[in-house]
């Protein structure tokens, strides 16, 4: 990464050092929309609510009016429509004009006050109070894993107490996995097996590493098995994806700068990401770091090295895994992988390399599951409707396992399936690949039987 200007972002988590922010929308991006309406059939909120103001076309029109001063950004009606968007970016895939709707929405939210008290609480507690602070994240992760080990989810389900608790459904129905309260951190360097083909950095993530540390371990294993030396920098922090999606632009920029700095010091050829939302965000760091030309150029150069884990391994050429997994698996497309990064075939290709695995396509796989960053926390009713569509399609598929490539999707879909009375596990594509390469962890029971 020597060709990228080295910037010092150590100050970036200091609020007093927050960069100045452009007060105007990028009208060129706004004007790209010709209001043709071809995006409407792919918009989940338009499908759920049937209101033009909750369609991509309607939102773009409102953002244009707000940008021209015809309506205030803090108008309650404007805030409602802007924050009811999943920002799943399915409209971008459908758009014939190449409108960058996700970028426009994040720019608009950066100027729009939070919609309501619930939104303000999520920002204060999760986005600002937890994600940017590694020590707090580790403490929260320890409590989460300890609660699971003590059987709290089972107790909440048996007593039905989760129904009266804020976020109780997520506490009572966590995704099945092989977590341990005392799991060791990933080594800073995992050596390549056989001839070294690449030196890559691995984004551990914030929530990803606390809830799905085993997935990170299996990602490193799969990369190592394919000749990659894997570097997991100790000083990496949250990449800023969730703050960015919510419109917390200054915080997102500070975290983006810190992430760039951490991986520049690691001197890696590529930065591999196994969380679709994080990868989509990191591939757009030129927008996150647009406050000055040098930062923007650095962000753009960094983004060119970011690869989703499935994208990178598929492009590298996979060494066949030795263990069979004799299961029928369906793949759920994460929105920020399919629509944000335009990656569809690589995860499916990786799954097809696993001996014994039968891949079945999922109807409406390209529709959002309702997780959408923190959307399922700020708009649980609409998120539940989207989750219902997804659960119905999965049950119709006849699959024994659901594979996807984003932690938010795993949490959301696993919770929905369990509440529907289904035992179908939801796992990451790299989980299945890691188990096929011999990871010693304890997978969900259905997969454990198939590996025996």
CATH class of the largest domain: Alpha Beta
| SS-based class | alpha/beta
Q: Indicate the proportion of strand residues.
A: 5-15%
| Multimeric status of the protein | single chain
Largest sheet: 5 strands, mixed
The shape is globular
Q: Estimate the mean pLDDT confidence.
A: 90
* Terminal Cα span: 43 Å
* Number of DSSP E strands: 9
CATH architecture of the largest domain: 3-Layer(aba) Sandwich
What can you tell me about this protein's structure?
The chain is of the alpha/beta class and 452 residues long. It has four domains: 82 residues, Fumarate Reductase Iron-sulfur Protein, Chain B, domain 2; 46 residues, no CATH class; 132 residues, Rossmann fold (3-Layer(aba) Sandwich); 132 residues, Rossmann fold, CATH 3.40.50.10700. 49% of the residues lie in helices and 7% in strands. The chain contains 25 helices and nine strands. The strands form two sheets. It has a five-stranded mixed beta sheet with strand order 1-3-2-4-5. The chain has a four-stranded parallel beta sheet with strand order 7-6-8-9, with helices on both faces.
Q: What labels would you give this structure?
A:
452 residues; alpha/beta; Fumarate Reductase Iron-sulfur Protein, Chain B, domain 2; Rossmann fold; 4 domains; five-stranded mixed beta sheet; four-stranded parallel beta sheet; 25 helices; globular; disordered N terminus
């Amino acid at each position: 990464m020597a060709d990228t200007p080295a910037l010092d972002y150590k100050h970036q988590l200091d609020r007093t050092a927050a960069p100045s922010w452009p007060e105007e929308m990028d009208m060129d991006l706004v004007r790209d929309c010709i209001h043709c309406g071809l995006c409407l059939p792919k918009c989940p909120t338009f499908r759920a609510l049937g209101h033009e103001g909750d369609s991509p076309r309607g939102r773009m029109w409102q953002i244009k009016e707000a940008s021209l001063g015809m309506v205030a950004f803090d108008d309650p009606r404007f805030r409602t429509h802007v924050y009811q968007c999943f920002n799943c970016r399915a409209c971008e895939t459908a758009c014939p004009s190449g409108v960058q709707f996700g970028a426009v929405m994040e720019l608009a939210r950066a100027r729009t006050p939070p919609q309501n008290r619930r939104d303000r609480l999520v920002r204060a507690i999760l986005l600002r109070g937890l994600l940017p602070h590694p020590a707090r994240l580790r403490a929260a992760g320890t409590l989460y894993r300890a609660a699971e080990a003590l059987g709290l989810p089972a107790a909440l389900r048996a007593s039905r107490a989760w129904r009266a608790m804020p976020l109780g459904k997520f506490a009572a129905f966590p995704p099945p996995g092989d977590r341990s309260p005392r799991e060791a951190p990933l080594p800073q360097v995992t050596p390549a097996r056989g001839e070294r083909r690449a030196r890559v950095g691995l984004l551990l993530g914030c929530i990803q590493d606390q809830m799905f540390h085993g997935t990170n371990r299996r990602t490193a294993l799969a990369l190592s098995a394919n000749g990659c030396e894997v570097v997991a920098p100790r000083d990496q922090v949250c990449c800023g994806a969730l703050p960015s999606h919510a419109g917390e632009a200054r915080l997102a920029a500070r975290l983006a700068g810190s992430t760039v700095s951490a991986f520049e010091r690691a001197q890696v050829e590529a930065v591999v990401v196994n969380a679709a939302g994080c990868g989509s965000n990191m591939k757009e760091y030129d927008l996150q770091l647009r406050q000055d030309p040098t930062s923007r150029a650095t962000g753009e150069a960094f983004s060119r090295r970011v690869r989703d884990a499935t994208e990178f391994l598929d492009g590298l050429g996979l060494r066949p895994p030795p263990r069979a997994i004799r299961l029928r698996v369906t793949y759920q497309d994460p929105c920020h992988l399919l629509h944000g990064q335009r990656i569809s075939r690589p995860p499916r290709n990786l799954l097809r390399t696993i001996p014994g695995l039968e891949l079945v396509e999922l109807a409406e796989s390209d529709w959002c599951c309702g997780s959408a960053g923190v959307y399922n926390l700020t708009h649980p009713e609409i998120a539940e409707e989207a989750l219902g569509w997804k659960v119905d399609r999965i049950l119709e598929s006849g699959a024994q396992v659901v594979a996807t490539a984003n932690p938010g999707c795993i949490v959301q879909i696993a919770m929905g399936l369990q509440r529907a009375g289904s035992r179908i596990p939801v796992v990451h594509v790299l989980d299945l690949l890691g188990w096929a390469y011999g990871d010693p962890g304890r997978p969900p029971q259905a997969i454990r039987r198939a590996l025996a």
